Amino acid sequence: MAAAGFRAFGAKGPAWLRRSQWAQLSAGFCSRGPAGAERPELPPRPTRARQQDGIRNIVLSDLKKRNALSLAMLRSLQSDLLHEAESKDLRVIIISAEGPVFSSGHDLKELTDERSPDYHTKVFQTCSEVMLLIQKLPVPVIAMVNGLATAAGCQLVASCDIAVASDKSSFATPGVNIGLFCSTPGVALGRAVPRKVALEMLFTGEPISAQEALLHGLLSKVVPEEQLEEETMRIAKKIASLSRPVVSLGKATFYRQLPQDLQTAYHLTSQTMVDNVALKDGQEGIKAFIQKRKPIWSQ
């Protein structure tokens, strides 16, 4: 498998990730240089990534900071998302986390006046780049949430294409309580839930439960904690079994048509349907259906 050289970072993680023989992400991903070369010891990466059968799992693993989206975390996540993103061996990405907190949002120690405005700008720009990247990737990205997701952590969940959470999870944008309004999280949140729900969360900082998040559209599905990994993998395996070019075309078109007026959206998607029919896998799927057989995808 092309991704078989991928470096895995750390030994702990979700039980299903530890149990299976996952192919490691590429050795050059966080290379420390040629063997024998003396270099300063690098700090551990705040994310770990492994891939098998087209499914890449990225684990936020900075337990000491409650998986805060520090600049280092954001850059590590960005790297894991971008690595061989165009490879036909990659079909779907799952973002999960260690510990009881999915992500506590930005690292507030990076946002004091001990850091320069330029540094603060870099933090928020990089965060925005990561959130935009998730939607621009050619494969679906699934958030698997088991715990608390606040501020930019809630933004990360809202930015993913699909979000599956355990019934013990909760979500909040509490920045207003510490004098830092969650303006950037509000971008993703306000596009995932109704305006009045988003504004109540933003104005009060109070958390909502997983069931409330499901009701308002922040989540795709809520399951008991013991079923979270199984259900997330079921969805990921289903996506991984489908045509990558078709899924990629469909994802890109979905996000392109969303901000358009109705007429423009139908014009854009009608042309996409024509392009989809012309794809090799488009024809294979149609013919397989007519011939009552399983399709054989090119990718």
From TrEMBL:
It holds the Pfam family ECH_1. The keyword Cytoplasm does not apply. InterPro entries: ClpP/crotonase-like_dom_sf, Enoyl-CoA_hydra/iso, Enoyl-CoA_hydra_C, Mitochondrial_ECH-domain. Transmembrane segments: none annotated. One of its GO terms (cellular component) is mitochondrion. GO terms for molecular function: hydro-lyase activity. One of its GO terms (biological process) is fatty acid metabolic process. Its main location: mitochondrion. It is found in: Mitochondrion. Keywords: Fatty acid metabolism, Lipid metabolism, Mitochondrion, Transit peptide. May play a role in fatty acid biosynthesis and insulin sensitivity. PANTHER family: ENOYL-COA HYDRATASE DOMAIN-CONTAINING PROTEIN 3, MITOCHONDRIAL, PTHR43602. NCBIfam families: PRK08139.1 (NF006008). Belongs to the enoyl-CoA hydratase/isomerase family. This is Enoyl-CoA hydratase domain-containing protein 3, mitochondrial. It comes from Enhydra lutris kenyoni (northern sea otter).
